[in-house]
Write a structure and sequence with these properties.
Elements lengths: L13 H28 L1 H12 E6 L6 E2 L5 E13 L9 H8 L3 H10 L9 E4 L4 H9 L7 E11 L6 H4 L2 E3 L2 H6 L8 E3 L2 H5 L1 H4 L4 E7 L5 E4 L15 E4 L3 H11 L4 E6 L6 E7 L13 H9 L8 H4 L9 H11 L8 E3 L2 E4 L2 E4 L5 E3 L1 H7 L2 H11 L1 H10 L21 H7 L7 H7 L9 H12 L3 E3 L4 E6 L4 E4 L4 E3 L4 H16 L16 E7 L7 E8 L6 E7 L5 H4 L1 H12 L1 H9 L18
Parallel strand pairs: 2-10
Antiparallel strand pairs: 1-8, 2-3, 3-4, 3-5, 6-7, 8-9, 10-18, 11-12, 11-23, 13-16, 14-15, 17-20, 18-19, 21-22, 22-23
Length: about 625
């Protein structure tokens, strides 16, 4: 019998009742299946997406690597510093007036800063202020609800633990530019990188590896807690590798003090391996002022200073070598057999060649090559250069590395100027006058050399024919493996005749130790110093003074080159600095006393009385 409404008063019929029941069961089943799908089958996927909304990745910047001198003394390290970051995606433009007032900058500064990085991810924080004070941090924290997307981050800034500057050697760090960002994908806006010196050359070692920390954020993107559900997702940062330098910090300090008030450079090298003990340049700048906030006024004053304090004269400036070049001519002439130890030329105050008289500073009379080096006789080397000939002069200059970069591990090295025969032929329109040969015989003309080249040259003369690549970094400490690894550098054997080099040593020894030598005032009792003075002619002003030397004569351990601009002869301005450094190097008590004294010590105060020409 068919059901009627009286059997089921809530429905018109049983069929309608059953249909409604199936519909409800179906809906419940669909919801159940959907929940199973969300919670079980695709739960991990949606969990990840959910975390992506509530969890924020924060970069953890590592500390840059430290630097130590050759004796293990700390030179450069770090301290924590606070910076203000702004994430464009979370930031609200209406917050700009408030943020500008806290940072004490114009509102346009913030707007321009954001605009400059529009081409980068809006989710990447931009560092808009470095090394902020505590009051700024407190203000931002207090007003955090009104500054969405603005955060305080911890980074590091450089500390320098030594007297002096070492500016051109160490270099400095600054914020990466937008141009650099496009070339180097590792970095993000506001990152700090090395701009020159060791900071730049060893950037990939010093920078370390950034880490990632996951934090929980609220709907405003502000941190509410650390995210510890899956701690393995955090990536710890690794500090940069430490550089162990060849620099002698105390000797470097003495060199910088000796250069005060002058324009020039001092480079000291160990001739046994090419390690740079001193790299001093004046004028320079204080790298401490590039730490944290860098005032534009300070940088602009350096850039516009006529003394060019940003210029690394030791590796970037080139000068005529003058008489210090004469050992190149002597080495070539003795090796090629165009002269020997017994060959003599006469100096009558100069040398007549063609219709021109090429001057010498004195009338030296008749002498051999050792005596000519001792008194720096131009006439002898005019005649020697003519016998050797221009092609061989070019060959031996190139053999010693002139016209080429030394490969020192510092940025902006110049190769100087040492034109070959084709270049000279083109320069002189097909005919190279013979007078060029005479100029090349005494280190003048087109020849230009850098102080680092001259220091390498002095070291090569010292060890009698091995060119070591000059370098400042001896070894690198890997903070991951906890191992100190040496850095490999090149060396080249010139295969020079030992007898020839012994003659060169005799001449350079006589310069310092035999009366009449142009640097006799540099003589140090107990230390056989070999040296050579020179004066580089300067058509734009007063001449430049050079002095190169090495010591001791047997088994030398130190070689150096010193250039002083626009102060006259090398014997009067550069050689006294060399004596100061040699005393400090060989006598530790002198070093200690010099570090306390402001001026040159011992008998150097009388040096000006016995200076000779060239």
């Amino acid at each position: 019998m068919r059901n009627t409404l009286s059997d089921n008063p809530n429905f018109a019929s049983l069929d309608r009742y059953n249909a409604m029941r199936f519909i409800i069961i179906g809906i419940i089943s669909l919801f159940t299946l959907r929940l199973v799908n969300l919670q079980l089958w695709r739960g991990s996927e949606y969990k990840f997406e959910s975390e992506a909304q509530a969890i924020k990745k924060v970069r953890v910047e590592p500390f840059r690597g430290n630097m130590f001198d050759r004796n293990g003394k700390m030179m450069v390290h770090n301290e924590p510093s606070f910076s203000v970051f702004l994430t464009p995606n979370d930031y609200k433009q209406e917050s700009t007036p408030l943020l500008a007032s806290i940072l004490n900058v114009d509102t346009s500064f913030i707007s321009q800063y954001i605009k400059a990085y529009q081409g980068f991810s809006p989710f990447s924080p931009i560092k808009i202020s470095r090394d902020v004070e505590f009051q700024t941090i407190a203000a931002i924290q207090e007003l955090t609800d009104f500054l969405p997307g603005v955060e305080i981050g911890i980074e590091s800034k450089r500390l320098y633990d030594f007297d002096g500057t070492m500016a051109h050697m160490l270099g400095y760090t600054r914020e990466i530019s937008s141009t650099e960002l496009k070339k180097m994908s590792y970095y993000q806006p506001g990152d700090i990188i090395g701009k020159n010196g060791l900071e730049k050359e060893y950037e990939s070692f010093l920078r370390g590896r950034e880490g990632v920390e996951l934090i929980a954020v609220n709907k405003y993107g502000q941190k509410v807690s650390d995210f510890n559900t899956d701690i393995k997702k955090n990536l710890p940062s690794n500090n940069g590798f430490d550089l162990h330098l060849s620099i002698d910090k105390d000797l470097q300090t003495i060199a910088e003090k000796a250069l005060e008030g002058k324009r020039g450079a001092v480079v000291v090298i160990d001739p046994r391996n090419g390690e740079v003990l001193v790299h001093a340049v004046k004028p320079d700048y204080d790298p401490r002022k590039f730490n944290g906030k860098v005032k534009a006024e300070y940088y602009n004053s350096l850039r516009d200073d006529e003394g060019k304090p940003l210029l690394n004269r030791a590796v970037s400036s080139a000068y005529p070598p003058g008489s210090s070049w004469k050992m190149v001519i002597a080495t070539g002439a003795l090796t090629e057999g165009v002269i020997d130890i017994k060959t003599q030329f006469t100096c009558g105050g100069g040398y007549n060649y063609g219709n021109r008289f090429f001057k010498c500073m004195h009338n030296h009379g008749t002498m051999n090559v050792v005596q000519a080096i001792q008194v720096s006789c131009n006439s002898f080397f005019y005649q020697t250069a003519l016998r050797l000939g221009l092609p061989k002069i070019i060959e031996y200059g190139q053999l010693f590395g002139f016209g080429q970069k030394t490969g020192i591990d510092l940025s902006s090295e110049s190769k100087g100027n040492y034109p070959d025969i084709p270049t000279l032929t083109k320069l002189y329109k097909g005919y190279v006058p013979n007078g060029i040969v005479l100029n090349y015989g005494i280190g003048q003309g087109e020849i230009l050399v850098t102080p680092i080249q001259m220091a390498q040259y002095a070291a090569t003369l010292a060890n009698k024919g091995t060119i070591y690549q000059p370098h400042v970094v001896k070894s690198i400490f890997n903070n991951l493996t906890k191992q100190l690894g040496p850095v490999d550098y090149k060396k080249k054997e010139l295969k020079l005749n030992p007898d020839v080099m012994e003659i060169i040593h005799q001449g350079m020894f006589a310069v310092v130790n035999i009366p009449g030598g142009t640097a006799n005032h540099v003589k140090i009792p107990g230390i056989d110093v070999c040296g050579k003075t020179s004066t580089a002619q300067n058509p734009h002003g007063q001449d430049h003074g050079w002095f190169i030397c090495f010591a001791p004569r047997k088994n030398p351990t130190i070689a150096m080159a010193i250039i002083i601009e626009n102060r006259g002869t090398g014997g009067s301005v550069a050689a006294p600095i060399a004596k100061e450094l040699l005393n400090a190097y060989f006598f530790s008590d002198s070093l200690k006393s010099k570090l306390k004294a402001p001026k040159i010590y011992l008998d150097l105060k009388d040096s000006a009385k016995i200076i000779t020409s060239n």
